[in-house]
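Below is a complete specimen:
___
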Amino acid sequence: MSKVFLDWPKFPTAAESATRDEQLRANVRRATHTIRAKRGALAAERPDWQDLRDSAAALKDEALHHLDTYLEQLEAKVTEAGGIVHWAENAEDANRIVTDLVKQTGETEIIKIKSMLTEEIGLDGALEAVGISARETDLAAAIVQLGDDLPSHVVVPALHLNRTEIRDIFVREMGKHGRPAPDHLTDDPKELAEAARLHMREKFLKAKVAVSGANFLVAETGTLVIVESEGNGRMCLTLPDTLISVVGIEKVVPTWRDLEVFLQLLARNATGERMAPYTSSWTGVTDGDGPSTFHLVLVDNGRTRALADPVGRQALRCIRCGACMNVCPVYERTGGHAYGSVYPGPIGAILNPLLKGPDDPQTASLPYASSLCGACNEVCPVRIRFTDVLLKLRADVAEGDAKVKHPAEKAAFKAVGGVMDHHPLWNAAVKSAGKAGVLLPKNMGLPGPLHGWTDSRSIPDIPKRSFRTWWKRTDGGTK
């Protein structure tokens, strides 16, 4: 069965294990620092860089503010161009729709373009459950799939692996799924790329069905746009008879002209290139040119929940460039798997809780997976204020009535609130605390569920008398 982030440990537990993996940390650091340096140099070339970021943020906010209008316009234009639009409220709906569409073709093996949304909804597993094999064609995504692994970065899913580890995966696994790796394959990048190219070529020429995502949806024309570096996406978009595109509803932009802004930002932030080698766009179907059948599956899966959050909705501006991960000191030390989602790093720390809500045990800890240094704020091409959202999400857990709270914690806060509301009781409690302070152990943790507080803190000295008592015994109390 395809591997998924299911029953993943909470971030503190997963991070503790990841930070002990020295090879992982070295791989992640090398890759993120390389992309970070290239991105910085190319951003500095543009005197209008900050203006582009302002424009991108404004355009995304406009689209999100009128999301219903633009989605209806998009549906009309796609339908007018010969495509078929489907709406999926959640992952289950999306998987059922795509699975049924593939089953109708009679095919049992399809090809895919790297899509974080299809990873988010667990599409590969749903297809596998009904006997359909979905083979990834993006190099990094194929490496992850061949290695029965999980993605660790939104742009470079195999970022956590070095080229020797990749060579070993190719040699061990390629022959099980088609053309085997060449004899005496080394870890030279050119040889690895050629081995992947030969392996994938068979898939491209045989496939009758392809599944894609999209970087952008243009409401004005019903056009979908994919930006990539290898050309595998274009092969998937043009060779099969049936194309099924599974896209989040937040990917819509109002007009074709708006793409000008995003295309100038995306490649520079994502891979440190001035321009993506391949930018493919398609609108419906055309006789004799590309797939004869096109389906667009528009997926919510928590996005309208995020949209309803006045602070958190800015996370839906994200164009999946990965720049926030490449500068994050926490991600650099833990890698992406510790986040327990296909969206790791700073964007994962805010997007996952927004999509799933504050009651999900795994995602409730993610807003704390940050040093609040603000580096992510500075590189985000659509000006997401990560630190603002992180603090808001922390408050939702700490001050709200989230089910993930320990029952003892809920009871304790309720009791303290009752005492603080009752003036005589509060004064008595403060006096008692001063007398009990001498009995608290200085180098021992608190008992039971309270130990979480003292695991990372020392118990402070409790004064023998309160501020109010001191104040009354000074001149301040008589004024």
Notes: The chain has two domains: 11-303, 407-478. Residues 192 and 288 are 35 Å apart (CA to CA).
